[in-house]
Amino acid sequence: MVARFLTLKLTLMGNTFRRSVWQTIGMIVAVLYALGTVGMLVAAMVFVGVAGDPAWAAVAITLGGVLTVVGWWLIPIFAFGVDATLDPHRFSTFAIPRRTLLAGLAVAGLVSVPGIATVLLALGVSFAWVLEPGVLLVSLAGAVLGIATCVLGSRALTTLLAPVLESRRYREVVTIVALVLVVMIGPFVGWLANGVQISVGPEATDGGGAASTGTQLLPLFEQVASVAGWTPFGAAWSLGGAAHAGDWAGLAGRLAVALATIGLAWLVWDRALARSLERPPVGDGSGGKAKGLGPFGRVPFSPTWAVAARTATYWLRDPRYSGSIAIIPLLPVIMYFAGQSTGSFFMLLATGPFVGWILGFSISNDIGYDNTAFALHVSSGVDGRADRWGRAIPMLAMGPLVSAATVVASVWVADSWHLTMPLLGLAIGALLVSTGVSCAVSARLVYPVAKPGESPLKSPQGAAMATFVSQGIGFAITLGLSLPVFAVGITAIALGSVLWGALTVVVGALYGGLILVLAVRFGARVYDKRLPELLQQVQSFP
Amino acid sequence: MSDGTATFGVMTTPVDPSPPGSPGTQGTQEQPPHDPSAALSVRGLWKRFGQKIAVSGVNLDVPAGSFYGLVGPNGAGKTTMLSMATGLLRPDFGTSWVHGVDLWARPDEAKATLGVLPDGVRLFDRLTGRQLLTYAGMLRGMDRATVVDRTNDLLQAFDLVADAETFVVDYSAGMTKKIALGSAMIHAPRTLVLDEPFEAVDPVSAANIRDILKSYVAGGGTVIVSSHVMDLVQRMCDHVAVMAAGQVLAAGTVDEVRGEQSLEDRFVDLVGGRQHSEGLSWLRGS
Description:
- The structure holds two protein chains of two kinds.
- Chain A is mainly alpha-helical.
- Chain A is 77% helix and 0% strand.
- Chain B has two domains: 8-15 and 33-113 and 190-271, P-loop containing nucleotide triphosphate hydrolases (Rossmann fold), CATH 3.40.50.300; 124-188, no CATH class.
- Helices cover 33% and strands 22% of the residues of chain B.
- In chain B, a hairpin with a 2-residue loop joins strand 1 (40-49) and strand 2.
- Chain B contains ten helices and ten strands.
- Chain B has a six-stranded mixed sheet, sandwiched between helices.
- By secondary structure, chain B is of the alpha/beta class.
- Chain B starts with 22 loop residues before the first helix and ends in a 15-residue tail after the last helix.
- Chain A: It comes from Promicromonospora umidemergens.
- Chain A: Keywords: Membrane, Transmembrane, Transmembrane helix.
- Chain A: The chain crosses the membrane at residues 21-50, 56-80, 101-129, 135-161, 173-193, 248-269, 321-339, 345-363, 395-414, 426-447, 468-493, 499-520.
- Chain A: This is ABC-2 type transport system permease protein.
- Chain B: Residues 40-270 form the ABC transporter domain.
């Protein structure tokens, strides 16, 4: 039975190759990348273990193992809908004993690019102890236990949380949290590195050089690893290290922790699966509610304002939009940290105009986001002017405020108040030009994005090229059309004159406004001409 | 991105090699002139997706004031034909007249008198039911008082008052169908084109919808529905057209089309594909 699950999973994987050439190429690239990474890590570990100090290898394997387990456990919770090909509910109509089903699903869970990579990596790094056969054996056994911890824990968590994961509200919240976390990883690592540098710095200068920074850090890592080795995340991975050190009591204790973790995960998964198979999840029936008409009640009754009210509602309620709103306040923070290492405030000060540009750019694939709901616009015969202006209005209402707030915040932190005017002008100009270009481009270039209800982190397969080309074209046009504003703004900054600063604001607003009006008019004409084709395009999305 | 081969509804059946009136000649044939008095008059509609000819030279007249059923097996081209007739999909050849207005020449004028319920498209489902109806009304350029009144009436008629403030994304399949139907009717069109309107709708709601549609026809409106359910069409419609493999095989009043037979038997005769066998001999409940 377990073999049959394996065959099923392999067949499913094989079939994805047959679907399209591009998917096959993508898959091959992913496999090569994974193999390369695994090969490099294994080689490095074996080198450290054989030529260097095996204790270092023990620390590295334990810490790497902890990260792997955490990844296996947490990623499926954030990136929902990643792999539902072997959803246990699909087997609920077949009379399969639960124990068999569990074993089959567990093994099949390993048959994927990340799964195979984990197996190869876990077994491979054990060969750091190739000089001590006994330790090697213990380490290999630990690797098997570690892999089991990854798979069983991940399945147990997702099955246990399935009722929560399936609620739309939760998904939306998690989506935004995940987006924020992903965006914050860079600055966080930068901050961490900075902190370590500072705390290690004074002594490092005594010892002289970067090599000693490593030795300085080693005790810290050793400490973390020795603690982590006793946690469910790291116990299995630290068995080899314990055997190498001859710490037999520690070995027995860690083995107990590792086995208990696996046993508990199996039990939880078994129970949770039993529960979910007996009571398949159904919609909770209540659903989200909103009183009254919302923005629709507050606008004049016309097609243009209808589209504007709908767009505004979506900005707040659709995580694909609200996710990008949530990121915008983080941009100055990211820029602040990015600029800190160089000691200049240039990056931070550029944030204002950058926010203006990115806000306008964010509506450049609005019809792609509508997906086939756009059919309502087609069958209602909404004309291009109403559609284009309607989508731009919420941006024009909110964008200037957000950009201006960012500019003020950035000059405040950088204490460069004399740059307020030129930066404001640049931000307004960038916002208006990019909004206009978006309105024009989105009537011509539509590319697949995450569908309504899907995680915004998920990008449709095979759409990378179309996305790249469309965004590239939009970006190039925006950049070209923004040059006059840039010229005036940069002159103002270089001269530092108040008059030029004021001029930047005037040029940004007037020139940007002109481009906006012309671009929207152009976009509306294209839209009117291509209305059925636009619908056909979104209908053809995978 | 879009290369035209992509799926649109369900019409990807290859054309039967020898249908009545070979598809090779029909496109170039002389079309009878369109009927300016008809609610919908379709002439020489063709659509090809890649290698598959989805609709090959359809002519159809839907008299004003009729309750018109469009039936056909899966993949017959019903959705494609209706999409082209209502301005959702540009035909390769041919056009459609809505009350004498050429839809592909003057789309705004023609669409104003049409209400369309497409099959297999999403709704703006992050809106509540009330917001969605309001949105549909506003897109048609209606004034506030009318939109508010009609929204309330429609919610009442479709039994959605209790769920008016719920997001459409949380609606059941049947409720979604009903709210989509409501958004197609809010501007009081002269002609309603409904693709599979009863799919997933419970019997009570279906009966209510039928009553609404009947009184709409009695008041001079025209309804075109596509359906798989012969029985429903026979009871509800006064006209019917049978489509298969991208062509109209028979059209006229229900009595003309079915003759002495039941509509279902006539349909099977026209379309073929019925198997007369003992069935699955091993499949016996015991």
